Amino acid sequence: MSVSSALELGAVVERLRASGCVFAEDEAALIFETARDAAELGAMVDQRVAGSPLEYVVGWASFRGLRIAVDPGVFIPRRRTEFLVAEALRVAVAGSVVLDLGCGSGALGAAVAADCEVSLYAADIELAAVRSARRNVEPWGGTVYQGDLYAALPERLRGEVDVLLANVPYVPTDEIRLLPPEARLYEPHVTLDGGPDGLATLRRVVAGAGEWLKPGGHLFVEMSDHQAPLARAVMIEHGLDAEITTDDGLGANVVHGIKPDAVRGVGTPGG
């Protein structure tokens, strides 16, 4: 780096720090790495200083070692959600049919496919998300559909899904105002708002999961500490076996539902 570039980098660091960026040095380095010319550099710094999330500014988010393309208007994958992927990889095997439902950027599906050779499908209702997701999952052979949850899917996937990933919105409506400004002001509320108790979309996903999962298929969702037991109860109510796993380091809770291998009879031998 030339002396002039170093001085310019220092000035950017100071601008970012003054605007409240805690990791100003790291962010400045990423912006310098990404910008193609001085004009773009200046525009990117202005966006970040104004409060736009760094991921929107540089156009990607880091997720399990991948650079996930993220356009403005698309939910930014969180590091804690890497635990959901790790849990899914415990059961995914080569050839598994994996569905990333309500996929946003497609980060979950892409991360699973990066570790295991699977048949990958994803769906989201938002066009901006579908555009980003296609950039992230198509390199892994994945296909992205646009539509409302299961309504987006081709009929041929019904009853064929081995692993269903659904990082659905789970922030209660009244608590969105408490989120950090980067989320509250820049990410679409449809990607955050889980309804009055945060479980509205989760209930819809679970209600349809049995029709789309294979016998023995797995559903993974992320929930907060107090919502995880409620989500587990919803899964059990809809006929899934369910457990909660936690990663204290990431502050993450995953609720894991399993479709029974066979219909449990009542009043029949062994039922």
* CATH topology descriptor of the largest domain: Rossmann fold
Low-confidence stretches: 265-271
The number of distinct helices, counting runs of at least 4 residues, comes to 10
The counted number of beta strands is 9
Mean pLDDT level: 92
Q: Please give the CATH class of the largest domain.
A: Alpha Beta
Q: Name the structural class.
A: alpha/beta
CATH superfamily of the largest domain: Vaccinia Virus protein VP39
Dominant shape: globular
Strand order of the biggest β-sheet: 5-4-3-6-7-9-8
Radius of gyration: 20 Å
Second-tier CATH architecture of the largest domain? 3-Layer(aba) Sandwich
Helical residue percent? 25-40%
Give, in order, the helices and strands.
HHHHEEHEHEHEEHHEHEE
Q: Biggest β-sheet, characterized?
A: 7 strands, mixed
